[in-house]
């Protein structure tokens, strides 16, 4: 029906049932009578309202958009519930747990006590007599901080590079893309190891370390976002926004960013996982300086103590492993379900409930093969 | 004749029938209930005929096509009988076949061409592979089959060698569609089912394919079922026409009879709603109401909620087929009254006067004035790592025109001719690489940095409404947010409630009621027409002087287009806005331009080849290309006579490397040697009103008269 | 053609950028290795000048030279393959690396190949049986395997199959007491040693299978698949030529990025298995504060990744006819 040969992007709104069943008749306008009085008398241009908008109205709208609707979608998704519960547990441990469990010191208890044998040391002790549970618990805050700062940095830099390069185009794009491509080509862990070794004086807190770990992680996201922005930039609604002369800021943040939100959020969660994996790996290798307990350090000391071939030390090795994998499971489940939260179709379903559309098949568009 | 109701038997039919359907239904089980997308249809498809099936989107026409091959996509269920009668041998019950039997029926006996030619090919293998794998899957001799494919491709005016070696993405839409036709015929089927085979193509290409189909049908002795929403398109081709409404046939009969004395009120309404070139504009009107939901089809006659003749009988009793003439059946209790009381537009040919011509209003200062505008894409703006030999495309090449207060100008041309680029240049969304665009005498790009205007006044005054209602609204924003933005930007003095009032008023004004309901919706909760209106009032809210309507109605259903255009015209009257419309469809262009007394400009490969008042362009086109477009626009009137195609080559030349001289000379039937060398200027050749045309022949140029023809005997 | 040229230029640019970064880190950071080296070695020598000379031998950087001269010398030595001298291994860095490269390449290419092959096959099966128990179970499996870091899997494999069951060696890269060369015991021994590191990268199959599943389901809904079925093509053709090819192609970019991170992972893996490849030497260098070896290993690993990505990019055009002309998306 159109002469438009350019393929419009297949977006989430072509849902599969729509293709099977010939167009939904709801998509048809009533040929409603068009007012033909041609009158300018009642021009709606001049209308103003007699009631002032209250702050309450605005707050209400804000809450509706950013809190209530997402929550009502997530509430119905078991992945979100499980994922959030797992992360919630870690958060509780990091905030309350550290007060409940005394920090451990060498020779606090017997050497290499097994797990579940003595309730004073529920998860056993290390060869130097440290309480494994206490070590695991006290590792959590710094790991979470590292994770958050790294994920935010990845998202921040990746999105900024991608959006600006994609929207601005021209020379700006060339420069930013070149930088991005260089970073994509540099393998992450070795770069981080080199930097951590040479800059060890500067990385003495979890935030800095998180940022350092993210240096190797943002480029893939930046490139993916750039190519998405290139597509979105040509969409009609962006052109309309330019015609209306909305500010570039508005176009970037309100027109383009929401389109990328699912992608960004899912990648933030994935980035958090990558950061944790990398951080623990580096501590495990003994490359990073450390002062306090840490899952990676626990792995390292257990490994050094020969836990691999000493069954009596297995618990020492297993506790940090479970801790890492557990938070990763939580993050993955959360990423899978977050995909849906930002989908406008899902949103509408949870607002009025007047539409009953078949559930879409899960799209894995937003997951990527970046993380290993 | 064909529709005999319930006494259907599998006995051999008296007439030479190829496919017989009896009480055939297709349904989908959905949460809301059973979705009947084809509702107990009876039909006979006769051997050797072309049956045109007309239906709007959502009428069940695609399901009808699929049912003929028992190819309804999962989880759809087909019930009833579909029987195929081969020329020799036993009848085949299509719906009861095993998988292996179906495999040999499909493509060998009954073949199909889909609507989506763009996506009907596997993108990673060559066209040749498509042919070879089809042949070997059916145990056909591959060499002989490829020879046949070569013939078919050549018959469709394609270069067979080049086509076979190409990958799908290397072909244009028109080429893909023709290759798909060849692919569907490679096993020499008896019946060819075509579902909207030309919907995505330009008019000229559509019309060319239709002409080719006629030849192919004769040559290969085919039975064709041609399914489309575009009634005028099949009018010439079809022997019989069947009109689908709400998943049932409303009317079926000989093509001429259905067009001249349509008996069903829906057919009559549909004819009136279809923009065309000859019918008086006053007679064109949209159909009231909407077609029913497949889950909830009205009892009795499914058309009764929209029908002006409906009475109690219609609400209760499903109208069986009535004989409206030999071979002409209609499902309407009141078909006789329908013929008597309901007018059909094109029966009369009286042309009533329109609004005062835009030329009359053209006296004042132009609102927007383009002079010698040129837009080039793909230049070396890439910087550092771009050591490619850049292939530049000149999308717009030296075009000038003025648009006045309350003016309407419609640009017409094939896709890729630069009409949209030109439109965007005129409203300051595309920076020209040459020439100037002036708004009320000021160069809009003066002092602009980058790709946005710095002149606030011009920015507000020049707005755009897009082609695709789906992507013209941000899917993540509610209608309220979408409409608030222009107000916030240009009327910062209004507070939230003022804006709300204004938006509600505007929504109501364009017939979106109740507006309070709609402001909180997301775009995907609106219908196509509603989205289009929201997009239109978003531009209107800031009171612009000129709106670019980029194919604003092409994406809508036929029956809605007239309504949408009427609304645009109405808004223009109320708000003194000018329109620059872009359309590939001459009938739509005519409706909009003629009704407002506006002009039509015809573009070809980046150049404006003819511009003038709508009436003159339509009825007295000077440029051969305009004449070709005119030829390609299907006519409903009875006076249609089959004419020779006025173009020498179906495909548009590569715009990266446009022909020398007159760019149209490669396709022009009147081209002479001088046309190859000399580029014609736009010169007024109109009698009376101005009608500048860039054609040496129309200008009666002496060089042209002296020159030799280069057409080898068309 | 010009796209390939452009891609080569980009690869060269990356290598240059990494070398420059290496120079910057070695020479210009406050407290950089060169200064540290001079400060450490200088007092032990009679002639402080000797410390500078030694710095130049070890790190290709003469601390006394002006910065641009030092930079030029550094880059030219790197260009001819002189990467300095390892302090801990007492051998030229280039020699150590040259000896280590094949081992890392061997393990990593198998790891990538097996990880993706398994992931793609599983994903295809999951899509085929979409919505069944089988699909649910495999999706759950893929989710869990994705949440295990590869080094955790490596440790678990090491405990189970090397220490407990004794099926595989616990460390090393080649069998003892077998003459190196093209003989069966040696080849078998190499595979035996590489098996656990390769399977540690199995975690990559999790994400790959989920992506493949999604892509396949999408292709199943495409028009061309419906047409292919109507044309009566055999199921095998449809599965391989239609579904698999079209579902795998979009994963190519992901695969390329995975190559980078898997080479990075080699550092950890080789350390765990004491598998003496590039990563192993890099960690040894870090521990011994042997900066020339560390920077050399880093540079070489990066170059390996750059070349791998370049090859992958250039071959992509061979598989996907749509690439090549518009390579912008592919690299």
Automatic annotation (TrEMBL), chain B:
Pfam families in alphabetical order: ABC_tran (PF00005), oligo_HPY (PF08352)
Main localization category: membrane
GO molecular function, one term: ABC-type nickel transporter activity
One GO term describing the cellular component: plasma membrane
Region (Disordered): 635-661, 683-714
Keywords: ATP-binding, Cell membrane, Ion transport, Membrane, Nucleotide-binding, Translocase, Transport
Topological type in the membrane: Peripheral membrane protein
InterPro entries: AAA+_ATPase (IPR003593), ABC_Ni/Peptide_Import (IPR050388), ABC_transporter-like_ATP-bd (IPR003439), ABC_transporter-like_CS (IPR017871), Oligopep_ABC_C (IPR013563), P-loop_NTPase (IPR027417)
Subunit field text: The complex is composed of two ATP-binding proteins (NikD and NikE), two transmembrane proteins (NikB and NikC) and a solute-binding protein (NikA).
Protein name: Nickel import system ATP-binding protein NikD
Automatic annotation (TrEMBL), chain C:
CDD domains per record: TM_PBP2
GO CC terms, sorted: plasma membrane
Keyword Transmembrane belongs to the record: yes
Location, primary (coarse class): membrane
Gene3D superfamilies linked to this entry: MetI-like
Topology relative to the membrane: Multi-pass membrane protein
Family: Belongs to the binding-protein-dependent transport system permease family.
Name of the protein in question: ABC transporter permease
Organism: Saliphagus infecundisoli
Taxonomic lineage from the root: Archaea, Methanobacteriati, Methanobacteriota, Stenosarchaea group, Halobacteria
């Amino acid at each position: 029906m159109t002469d438009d040969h350019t393929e419009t992007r297949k977006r989430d709104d072509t849902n599969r049932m729509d293709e099977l069943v010939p167009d939904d008749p709801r998509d048809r306008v009533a040929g409603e009578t068009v007012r033909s009085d041609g009158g300018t008398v009642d021009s709606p241009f001049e209308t103003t309202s007699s009631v002032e908008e209250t702050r309450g109205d605005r707050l209400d709208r804000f809450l509706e958009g950013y809190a209530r609707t997402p929550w009502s979608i997530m509430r119905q998704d078991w992945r979100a519930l499980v994922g959030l519960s797992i992360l919630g547990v870690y958060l509780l441990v990091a905030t309350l747990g550290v007060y409940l469990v005394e920090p451990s010191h060498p020779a606090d208890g017997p050497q290499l006590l097994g797990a579940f044998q003595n309730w004073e040391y529920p998860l056993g002790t290390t060869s130097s007599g440290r309480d494994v549970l206490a070590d695991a618990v006290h590792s959590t805050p710094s790991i979470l901080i590292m994770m958050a700062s790294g994920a935010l940095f990845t998202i921040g830099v990746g999105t900024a590079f991608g959006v600006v390069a994609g929207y601005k185009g021209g020379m700006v794009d060339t420069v930013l893309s070149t930088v991005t491509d260089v970073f994509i080509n540099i393998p992450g862990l070795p770069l981080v190891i080199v930097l951590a070794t040479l800059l060890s004086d500067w990385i003495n807190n979890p935030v800095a370390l998180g940022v350092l770990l993210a240096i190797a992680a943002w480029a893939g996201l930046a490139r993916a976002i750039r190519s998405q922005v290139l597509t979105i930039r040509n969409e009609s609604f962006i052109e309309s926004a330019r015609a209306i002369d909305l500010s570039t800021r508005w176009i970037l943040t309100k027109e383009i960013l929401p389109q990328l939100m699912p992608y960004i959020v899912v990648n933030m969660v994935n980035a958090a996982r990558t950061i944790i994996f990398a951080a623990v790996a580096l501590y495990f290798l003994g490359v990073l300086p450390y002062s306090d307990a840490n899952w990676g350090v626990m792995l390292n000391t257990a490994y050094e103590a020969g836990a691999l071939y000493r069954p009596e030390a297995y618990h020492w090795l297993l506790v940090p492993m479970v801790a890492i994998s557990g938070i990763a499971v939580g993050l993955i489940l959360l990423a899978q379900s977050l995909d849906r939260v930002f989908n406008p179709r899902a949103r509408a379903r949870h607002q009025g409930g007047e539409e009953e559309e078949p559930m879409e098949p899960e799209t894995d568009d937003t997951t990527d093969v970046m993380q290993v | 004749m064909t529709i005999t109701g319930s006494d259907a038997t599998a006995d051999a039919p008296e007439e030479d029938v190829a496919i017989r359907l009896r009480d055939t239904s297709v349904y989908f089980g959905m949460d809301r209930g059973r979705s009947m997308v084809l509702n107990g249809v009876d039909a006979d498809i006769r051997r050797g005929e072309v049956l045109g099936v007309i239906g709007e989107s959502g009428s069940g026409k695609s399901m009808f096509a699929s049912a003929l091959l028992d190819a309804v996509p999962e989880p759809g269920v087909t019930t009833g009988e579909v029987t195929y009668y081969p020329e020799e041998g036993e009848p085949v019950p299509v719906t009861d076949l095993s998988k292996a039997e179906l495999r040999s029926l499909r493509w060998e006996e009954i073949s199909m061409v889909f609507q989506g030619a763009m996506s009907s090919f596997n993108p990673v293998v060559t066209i040749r592979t498509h042919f070879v794998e089809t042949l070997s899957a059916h145990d056909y001799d591959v060499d002989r089959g490829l020879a046949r494919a070569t013939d078919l491709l050549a018959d469709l005016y394609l270069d067979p060698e080049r086509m076979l070696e190409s990958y799908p993405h290397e072909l244009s839409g028109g080429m893909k569609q023709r290759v798909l036709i060849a692919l569907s015929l490679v096993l020499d089927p008896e019946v060819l089912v075509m579902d909207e085979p030309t919907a995505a193509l330009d008019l000229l290409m559509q019309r060319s394919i239709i002409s080719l189909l006629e030849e192919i049908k004769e040559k290969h002795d085919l039975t064709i079922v041609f399914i489309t929403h575009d009634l005028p398109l099949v009018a010439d081709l079809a022997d019989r026409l069947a009109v689908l409404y709400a998943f049932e046939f409303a009317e079926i009969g000989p093509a001429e009879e259905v067009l001249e004395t349509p008996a069903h009120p829906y057919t009559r309404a549909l004819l009136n709603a279809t923009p065309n070139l000859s019918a008086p504009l006053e007679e064109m009107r949209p159909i009231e109401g909407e077609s029913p939901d497949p889950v909830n089809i009205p009892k009795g006659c499914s058309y009764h909620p929209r029908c002006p003749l409906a009475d109690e009988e219609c609400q209760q009793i499903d109208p069986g087929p009535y004989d409206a003439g030999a071979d002409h059946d209609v499902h309407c209790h009141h078909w006789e009254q329908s013929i008597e009381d309901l007018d059909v537009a094109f029966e009369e040919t009286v042309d009533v006067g329109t609004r005062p011509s835009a030329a009359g209003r053209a006296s004042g200062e132009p609102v927007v004035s383009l002079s010698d505008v040129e837009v080039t894409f793909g230049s070396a703006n890439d910087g550092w790592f771009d050591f490619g030999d850049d292939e530049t495309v000149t999308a717009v090449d030296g075009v000038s025109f003025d648009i006045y207060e309350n003016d309407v100008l419609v640009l017409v041309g094939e896709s890729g001719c630069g009409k949209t680029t030109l439109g965007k240049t005129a409203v300051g969304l595309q920076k020209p690489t040459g020439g100037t665009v002036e708004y009320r005498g000021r160069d809009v790009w003066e002092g602009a940095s980058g790709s946005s205007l710095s002149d606030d006044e011009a920015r507000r005054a020049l707005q755009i409404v897009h082609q695709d209602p789906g992507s013209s609204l941000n899917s993540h924003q509610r209608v309220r947010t979408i409409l608030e933005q222009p107000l916030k930007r240009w009327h910062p003095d209004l507070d939230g409630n003022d804006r709300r009032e204004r938006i509600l008023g505007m929504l109501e004004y364009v017939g979106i009621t109740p507006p309070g309901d709609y402001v909180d919706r997301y775009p995907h909760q609106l219908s196509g027409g509603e989205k289009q209106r929201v997009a239109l009032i978003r531009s209107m809210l800031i009171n612009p002087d000129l709106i670019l309507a980029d194919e604003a109605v092409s994406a809508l259903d036929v029956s809605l287009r007239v309504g949408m255009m009427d609304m645009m015209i109405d808004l223009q009257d109320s708000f003194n806005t000018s329109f620059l419309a872009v359309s590939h469809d001459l009938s739509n262009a005519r409706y909009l331009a003629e009704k407002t007394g506006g002009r039509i400009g015809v573009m070809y490969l980046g150049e404006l080849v003819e511009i003038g008042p709508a009436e003159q362009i339509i009825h007295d086109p000077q440029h051969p290309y305009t004449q070709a477009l005119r030829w390609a626009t299907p006519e409903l009137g009875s006076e249609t006579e089959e004419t020779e195609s006025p173009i020498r080559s179906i495909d548009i030349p590569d715009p990266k490397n446009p022909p020398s001289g007159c760019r149209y000379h490669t396709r022009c039937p009147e081209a002479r040697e001088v046309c190859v060398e000399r580029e014609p200027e736009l010169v007024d050749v109109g009698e009376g009103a101005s009608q500048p045309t860039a054609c040496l022949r129309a200008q009666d140029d002496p060089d042209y008269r002296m020159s030799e023809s280069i057409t080898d005997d068309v | 053609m010009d796209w390939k040229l452009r891609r080569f230029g980009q690869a060269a640019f990356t290598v240059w950028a990494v070398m420059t970064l290496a120079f910057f880190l070695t020479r210009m950071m406050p407290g950089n290795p060169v200064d540290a080296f001079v400060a450490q070695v200088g007092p032990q020598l009679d002639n402080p000048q000797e410390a500078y000379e030694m710095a130049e031998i070890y790190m290709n950087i003469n601390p006394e030279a002006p910065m641009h001269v030092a930079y030029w010398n550094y880059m030219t030595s790197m260009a001819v393959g002189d990467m300095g001298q390892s302090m801990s291994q007492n051998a030229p860095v280039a020699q150590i690396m040259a000896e280590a490269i094949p081992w890392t390449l061997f393990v990593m290419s198998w790891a990538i190949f097996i990880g993706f092959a398994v992931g793609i096959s599983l994903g295809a099966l999951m899509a085929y049986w979409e919505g069944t128990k089988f699909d649910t179970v495999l999706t759950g499996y893929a989710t869990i395997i994705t949440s295990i870091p590869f080094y955790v899997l490596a440790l678990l494999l090491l405990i189970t199959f090397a220490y407990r069951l004794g099926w595989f060696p616990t460390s090393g890269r080649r069998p003892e007491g077998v003459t190196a060369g093209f003989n069966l015991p040696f080849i078998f021994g190499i595979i035996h040693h590489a098996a656990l590191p390769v399977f540690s990268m199995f975690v990559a199959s999790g994400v790959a299978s989920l992506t493949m599943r999604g892509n396949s389901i999408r292709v199943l809904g495409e028009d061309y698949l419906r047409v292919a079925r109507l044309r009566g093509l055999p199921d095998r053709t449809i599965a391989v030529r239609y579904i698999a090819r079209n579902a795998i192609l979009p994963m190519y970019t992901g695969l390329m990025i995975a190559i980078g991170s898997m080479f990075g992972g080699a550092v950890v893996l080789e350390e765990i298995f004491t598998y003496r490849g590039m990563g192993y030497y890099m960690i040894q260098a870090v521990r011994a504060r042997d900066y020339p070896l560390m920077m050399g290993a880093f540079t070489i690993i990066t170059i390996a990744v750059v070349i791998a990505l370049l090859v992958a990019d250039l071959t992509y055009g061979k598989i996907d006819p749509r690439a090549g002309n518009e390579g912008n998306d592919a690299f």
